[in-house]
């Protein structure tokens, strides 16, 4: 086989970049249309009490069917939305839709768990965001205690002080805050304590490490649980995939569990069936 010559390599490289840009532009165009026509829906991933195994809350996750058809999920389209400014409209849509669904399941099934809503990093630097949350709560007459906003630690790196101020502003509305994907970013344990959050979600890579006899990952889980205990933060373990992990987490005081083993993200109908039978 002939080795790739410098020029050929460059052509491959350029083609990849061009492909990447085209893909990004496709996502941007499709998202713009989806926003115009509200072509989104939510799926509902239950969060369980580690002790009682009851559903205590639900994380709402966005889906864009016109992108799903092309194999593009939120992991890929949310960053495009963030870099193009489309994210504000999407986050607002998600908030509005979530609160209206929350009211429906509360009225119809007496569901009293919390709704966990993912918030883009962009909103931590958006002065209008707390006002948006407040008017949504008022519009839907939802008590703020039912709402948990999930933020990822990578959102803080630009401007830690500004982020903390924004988090305090959000907290003053009465909603609770949770730090998502903990362990994957750059937050030091000491910063975890500075952030005014109520809950920490341990990223699924660490929970999966519990089964791989990965000492580092296990230590990380142990330390988060110990610190959370000390500072009175609640812990949600993400990506739970078997009973052994549940046993380990429960023994160490982890309050809540989420993962494919317990439930995959559910359609609106299946979520209703789940909580209907729980009553
Ligand atoms: P996330 O907030 O960490 O959400 C959890 C993701 O992990 C979900 O993927 C969920 O399906 C997946 N997951 C949960 N348990 C397991 C498990 O046991 N095994 C495996 N393999 N996966 C599991 P999804 O729905 O593709 O979402 C990806 C990310 O996109 C989310 O990560 C979140 O950062 C973002 N996202 C999703 N919905 C929204 C939204 O409405 N707004 C914003 N701003 N971001 C969102
Ligand atoms: Mg999340
Ligand atoms: Mg997460
Ligand atoms: Mg994530």
UniProtKB/TrEMBL annotation:
What region holds the EAL domain? 24-279
Which protein are we looking at?
Answer: EAL domain-containing protein
Q: Which organism is it from?
A: Pleionea litopenaei
């Amino acid at each position: 086989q002939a080795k790739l010559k410098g020029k050929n390599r460059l052509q491959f490289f350029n083609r990849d970049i061009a492909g990447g840009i085209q893909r990004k532009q496709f996502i941007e165009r499709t998202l713009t249309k989806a926003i115009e026509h509200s072509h989104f829906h939510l799926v509902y991933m239950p969060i369980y009490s580690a002790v009682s195994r009851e559903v205590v809350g639900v994380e709402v996750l966005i889906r864009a069917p016109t992108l799903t058809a092309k194999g593009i999920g939120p992991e890929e389209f949310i960053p495009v939305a963030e870099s193009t400014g489309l994210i504000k409209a999407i986050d607002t849509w998600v908030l509005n839709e979530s609160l209206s669904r929350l009211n429906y399941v509360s009225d119809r099934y007496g569901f009293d768990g919390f709704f966990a809503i993912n918030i883009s990093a962009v909103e931590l630097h958006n002065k209008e965001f707390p006002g948006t949350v407040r008017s949504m709560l008022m519009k839907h007459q939802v008590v703020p205690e039912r709402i948990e906003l999930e933020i990822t630690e990578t959102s803080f790196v630009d401007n830690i002080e500004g982020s903390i101020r924004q988090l305090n502003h959000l907290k003053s509305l009465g909603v609770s805050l949770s730090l998502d994907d903990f362990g994957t970013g750059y937050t030091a344990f000491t910063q975890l304590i500075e952030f005014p959050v109520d809950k920490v979600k341990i990223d699924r890579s660490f929970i999966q490490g519990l089964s791989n006899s990965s000492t580092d990952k296990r230590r990380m889980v142990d330390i988060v649980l110990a610190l959370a205990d000390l500072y009175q933060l609640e812990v949600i373990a993400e990506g739970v995939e078997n009973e052994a992990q549940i046993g380990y987490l429960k023994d160490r005081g982890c309050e809540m569990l989420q993962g494919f083993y317990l439930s995959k993200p559910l359609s609106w109908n299946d979520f209703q069936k789940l909580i209907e039978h729980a009553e």
